Give the backbone structure.
Amino acid sequence: MKRILILGASGTFGKALVEKLSNDKECHLTLASRHASACYQESERCHVVDCDAMNEADLQQVMKGCDVVYCAISGYDLPVIVANTVSAMKKKGVRRLIFMGAVGIYNEIPVDMDDDDNVRNNPDQIPNRKAADIVENSGLDYTILRPGYLQDGDKDDFTLTFKGEQAKGYVSTIPSVVELAVRLINDDTLYLHQSVSITRNMSTIKKQ
């Protein structure tokens, strides 16, 4: 049984990911956020913890025995949270980290597509970029996942691009990101040491 820690489990994406993984009897989930107990109940395969990711001691406590850490936290404090997560993982011997950042942190959204969310134009992206840099230099078995604005839609409506390539869009469907996240959780070698953008293909949408 794979033991998965989800940081930010009570957020919009965290809830969608938990719903999907809850149906997998081969998974044991540790659901951590500041208000996790208000969203979830303990069960045989689900441990719920109110956790402050700004506190490394809290992180060390919740990741005991975990195989995979999935970080779905956002916000201004993200670089500190990620630095704490990396440090705690190393101390607890956890190797696999999946970090969810955002498309635009490498200025990869084409200018002619609407590049307002590139880090050079949007200061809110700076914490995402700093956190991704920490992950890339962590020495852990990481994958960085870069969705755009999350919206409802089809799980098959997505295009993948990689660091150094231009992104194909700036919005993503929640089901498509959930599907890729589950694949990354189940396969420790998938997109290992890579930064992957998952978005709807805006150029194709505009042609329709």
